[in-house]
Amino acid sequence: MAEALVLNATYEPLCVVSQRRALVLVLTDKAVMVESAGQVLRSTTAAVEVPIVVRLARFVRVPYRSQIPLTRKGVLARDHHRCVYCNAPATSLDHVIPRSRGGPHVWENVVAACGRCNHVKADRAVADLGWRLRTAPRAPSGAAWRILGSRRMDPRWSRYLSTVGDVSEAASA
């Protein structure tokens, strides 16, 4: 089964769960189906549509996370799985300013790199090698990054995610 978007009672996107979990939420009256996936599950006594978007029946207060956690999948998705130095397929992460030289482990200093570039760069700064970054690394923003992270976004979710941000582009790459 695929995944379903869960909305708060106020239609604010909360998270993504499996379609099975979304169906259980609907069957236990904890959520209402907003949009169907177009599939029907049948049993001997009932036929139930599979949800792709559900809305919780009661409002849930969720603590707001101001920063998106730095993860390998997130960095690769942000950089479209391409090396920022040579545009080859990325297989590893690299710190622009090496950690041994005081570089922090933050979104603005971590980039996707191919194994060859990462090995050649080693413990040196980009300026020492005369290289340049194709794009400046930055922290991802928007509701879609907070909700989806590096997951693929179902096109039917786009109207419920008010600011889609870069995740739809990154996830489709």
TrEMBL record:
<dbReference type="Pfam" id="PF14279">
    <property type="entry name" value="HNH_5"/>
</dbReference>
<dbReference type="InterPro" id="IPR003615">
    <property type="entry name" value="HNH_nuc"/>
</dbReference>
<dbReference type="InterPro" id="IPR052892">
    <property type="entry name" value="NA-targeting_endonuclease"/>
</dbReference>
<feature type="domain" description="HNH nuclease">
    <location>
        <begin position="70"/>
        <end position="119"/>
    </location>
</feature>
<keyword id="KW-0378">Hydrolase</keyword>
<dbReference type="GO" id="GO:0004519">
    <property type="term" value="F:endonuclease activity"/>
</dbReference>
<keyword id="KW-0540">Nuclease</keyword>
<protein>
    <submittedName>
        <fullName>HNH endonuclease</fullName>
    </submittedName>
</protein>
<keyword id="KW-0255">Endonuclease</keyword>
<dbReference type="InterPro" id="IPR029471">
    <property type="entry name" value="HNH_5"/>
</dbReference>
